[in-house]
Amino acid sequence: MAFEYEFSGGSPISLDEYMAWVDQNVDTSDPESIKESAVMLYRLSQNRSLLEDFLVDEIRSTNGVGLQSSNAYTDMTFMLGSSKGYFVRANVWMPAKPPKGAASVEQLQDELYAYEYPHDHNFDLLTVGYWGPGYRTEIFEYDPTKVVGYVGEKVDLEKIQDTYLSEGKVMFFRKSEDIHIQHHPEALSISVNLLPVTKDLTYRPQYGFDIASKTISGYVEGGTVGRVRLIEMAVAILGERASGFLEEIGKSHRCARTRMESFDALAKGSNDPGAVYERAMSDSSAFVRHMASQALARI
After folding, report:
1. What is the pTM of this model?
2. Of 218, 279, 248, whose CA–CA distance to 293 is shortest?
3. For 206-225, what is each residue's pLDDT tens digit?
4. Pick the residue with more confidence: 112 or 168?
């Protein structure tokens, strides 16, 4: 289950002090070590000038040009700092807005910021409520070792709790085990996160779920979508000349979805697609084997 921590007292610390402490005391590849650091993230959240100081320094140092230029996240996420094995970020959560002239406004916001969308994370996450009432979150859990990973797959998930990420509350979400649904806060809210960066981050799948049917509804796209698009572009431009590197990807790439994409691309350009999918049936991943068997059944 996701873990909650409530603290009181303790002197506020600066971002530099917090990151120096994490550098010296936290193994960001170890969930237990991350959880044990919860009190320090709480103390960072008690620094009420944290974001004010950050924004002033960021604007002064860039003159407003290239502000957050290395930030790969949405415009509601601000990168506060990074070090070996982790980064610290702030997320802004907006209250629901009634559509103004276009029915898609609220829908677009929901899609961009994952409101009302049941999903897991492919990383551990330690987060604290910094400002405002905080979003409400429904939390479920599942066993990733019992999941193959295809869309429509039945998943044995269980609701654990319904809570708010209020000011000062620290929560730890386990990668590939905790599912949550974030609901709009009643007023603008801000959370601050410690997000470990592990070697498997870009290769571990991240899922969306249909809670009513208890199934995987789709994928939360990260690095995988870029690899898939690159394969599609290479096939379109190189044609048969792409077959060599597609074979290599199918044999050795660490990401199962990327390997499956290479098999699909090879099959589309092959006079014998069945033979391609037969090779895929020997893959180490249950996901690849499942998708290959489905493709063979359609031939």
Report:
1. 0.83
2. 279
3. 999 999 999 999 998 766 77
4. 168
Closest C-alpha to 44, from 77, 71, 72, 7? 7
Q: Which CA distances in Å does 210 have to 67, 218, 260? A: 37, 9, 24
Residues 6+ apart with CB under 8 A from 62: 69
Q: How many CA atoms lie within 13 A of 153 on its CB side?
A: 20
pLDDT band at 60; cut points 50, 70, 90: low
DSSP codes joined into one string, the chain: --EEE---------HHHHHHHHHHH--TT-HHHHHHTHHHHHHHHT-TTHHHHHHHHHHHHHTTTTTTTT--S-TTEEEEEEETTEEEEEEEEPPP---SS-THHHHHHHHHHTBT--B--SS-EEEEEEESS--EEEEEE--GGG----TT-B---EEEEEEE--BT-EEEE-TTTEEEEEE--SS-EEEEEEEE--TTTTTS--EEEETTTTEEEEE--SHHHHHHHHHHHHHHHHGGGGHHHHHHHHHH-S-HHHHHHHHHHHHHT-S-HHHHHHHHTT-S-HHHHHHHHHHHHH-
Asked if residue 121 lies in contact with residue 137, where contact means CB atoms within 8 angstroms, the answer is: no
Residues 6+ apart with CB under 8 A from 162: 136, 137, 138, 139
At position 35, the amino acid (one-letter code) is: K
Residue 23 · residue 52 · CB < 8 Å: no
Burial of 52 (0-12, 13-18, 19+ CB in 10 A): exposed
Phi, psi for 199 (deg, rounded to 5): -65, -30
Q: Is residue 44 packed enough to be buried (19+ CB in 10 Å), middle (13-18) or exposed (0-12)?
A: buried
Beta-strand pair 86-93/136-141: unpaired
